[in-house]
Amino acid sequence: MEEIENQRMTHIAVERNRRKQMNESCCAQGDQASIIGGAINFVKELEQLLQTMEAHKKTKQEPADVSGFSSSPFAEFFAFPQYSTRAPATEEESVVDQNQWSMADIEVTMVETHANLKILSKKRPRQLLKMVAGLQALRLSVLHLNVTTVDQLVLYSVSVKVEEGCHLNTVDEIAAAVNQMLHRIHEEETAFSQN
């Protein structure tokens, strides 16, 4: 009986020491917000690595067709894009696509005041710089950004905070604003290259 009591006391002491070391480790690294921020950054880095590896794997298996959404090396990263460059399957979709002509595949998801954007487009000069400035002009503060490129395609994964005063309240409104912004960037590039 005494041996069981000694084992229990030893276990309690070991567990108490483990908790003390964990607390000291957490305090040394910073407060809880810093720890969570570090975890979020790590997950985003893993997401970018996965995107890059999957895209390169797919391009080695079959050549990428820039015009077709389903054959894009990034197609599996889009669940329900609000905008897509893929060809419409039906006449009904064709009418919708004419009204929402897309410069890129765009998918926006949102939780409270935070939104995640996935934007797949052709590479263009200074596009990233103009996109970040455009998002800030829309009062969407960029919190995290991943850029993954394969051939002439680029996938932007952007985490934004919807700031006070932003008039975009739904995923569809944000996706439409991003699509319009990409149209302006393309038009500016076209006008610049013609001069």
Automatic annotation (TrEMBL):
Main localization (coarse): nucleus
Localization in the cell: Nucleus
Transmembrane segments: none
Keyword DNA-binding recorded: yes
GO MF annotation: an example: RNA polymerase II cis-regulatory region sequence-specific DNA binding
GO CC, alphabetical: nucleus
The Plant bHLH transcription factor ACT-like domain, residue ranges: 105-181
Keywords from the named record: DNA-binding, Nucleus, Transcription, Transcription regulation
Organism superkingdom: Eukaryota
InterPro entries: bHLH-TF_ACT-like_plant (IPR054502), HLH_DNA-bd_sf (IPR036638)
Protein name (Swiss-Prot/TrEMBL): Plant bHLH transcription factor ACT-like domain-containing protein
Organism: Hevea brasiliensis
